[in-house]
Amino acid sequence: MSTIIPYGRQAITQEDIDAVVSTLTSDFLTQGPKVKEFEEKFALYTDSKYAVAVNNATSGLHLSVLSLGLQKGERVITTPITFAASANCIRYVGGEVWFADIDPDSYLMSLKSTKTLIESKPKGFFKGMIPVDLAGLPVNLEEFKDLAKEHDLWIIEDACHAPGGYFTDSKNKKQKCGNGNYADIGVFSFHPVKHIACGEGGMITTNSKKLYKKLLSLRTHGISKKDMSKNDGGWYYEMKELGYNYRLTDIQSALGITQLKKNDEGVERRNQIANKYKIAFKNKIKYQNLNSGDLNAHHLFIIEIEQRKELYNFLREHNIFAQIHYIPLHTLPYYKSIGYANVDLKNAENYYNRCISLPMYPSLTDKEQEFVILKVLEFINE
Length: 382
Ligand SMILES: Cc1ncc(COP(=O)(O)O)c(C=O)c1O
Known about the structure:
Elements: E1 5-6, H1 14-24, H2 33-46, E2 50-54, H3 57-67, E3 75-78, H4 85-92, E4 96-99, H5 111-119, E5 126-130, H6 141-151, E6 154-158, E7 166-168, E8 174-176, E9 185-189, E10 202-206, H7 209-219, E11 223-224, E12 238-239, H8 250-261, H9 263-281, E13 286-287, E14 301-304, H10 308-317, E15 320-321, H11 333-340, H12 346-354, E16 355-358, H13 366-381
Parallel strand pairs: 1-15, 3-4, 3-5, 5-6, 6-9
Antiparallel strand pairs: 2-10, 7-8, 9-10, 11-12, 13-14, 14-16
The structure holds pyridoxal-5'-phosphate.
Residues 56-58, 82-83, 85-86, 132, 158, 160-161, 189, 191, 202 line the site of pyridoxal-5'-phosphate.
């Protein structure tokens, strides 16, 4: 193909452009009605009670650990196969990251590894866990919640890859990613390669009013006009705690609202693409598994292959820009330098040597996908 086929791409329509332009000519570029509207619509979409818009998901994760009270030296479990932000948020407050190994078939943080890790330490050793819906595949949070309850841990669901995904719980109920029924908090990203593009942006969801209020305060410097110790006049406000400016603008929220409207359609198209890959690769190439009754939101389509590097280079030669998700976090220079050099996470390391994410986005055409499939099969048959 003469044009590059990337692994992910945003889809911006005229409706998105009109929404942004109309916000640009309104009274509010930020802190106006679009933020609130986006939050309300997102809460409704995810079946959660509250949503707090933020300037990106990294800020969202930072505010999440802060609002849950994570302190310096306290320990939190996450997966090594994720974007750095899932672990970095623990480090921002001086917390200790503990990695649980992944499941070799779902590539998600393994319940068994997490349980073994928790049970190898005295009660109270860990404060929380951050499982990640990698590639859009929902973590079965009901199982993690049982474990968390037993050991008094909080859960942040890193749902950055998974708006619109769900798992089916033991009562046969669909549990949407970020709905807060089993996790304390869910966090989503609106970076352009994700489902909903805001340029930069993120959303925090929760069912806890207490956490919601804390998140709102921390998002805006800890400043409030409510419950003040005194009132000097109309201008007066109080800063009650140390917060940040992690706000999303109205311009971005306007885009988020129109993008959100199209998400179900986008997830459906992503699943059509995934099914076509699966049919083509069945019994030839290993891909991320899915439990029946669950819906993978398919931010990514990940396969495993022995000569991964060669395939990556081969695809590039044909203008197919596949990508690797992710380099295990404990092997990154920063994490190595703070003591993770000898951590033993075999499944994560084996996975990293073999994984590659193929193009996956709603506007990928049938012709483009057929070309990708052709080239992958050509490579493995060589
Ligand atoms: C799993 C995961 N968590 C967190 C983030 C951080 O998102 P953002 O870029 O919006 O800060 C990303 C972004 O790539 C991600 O993939």
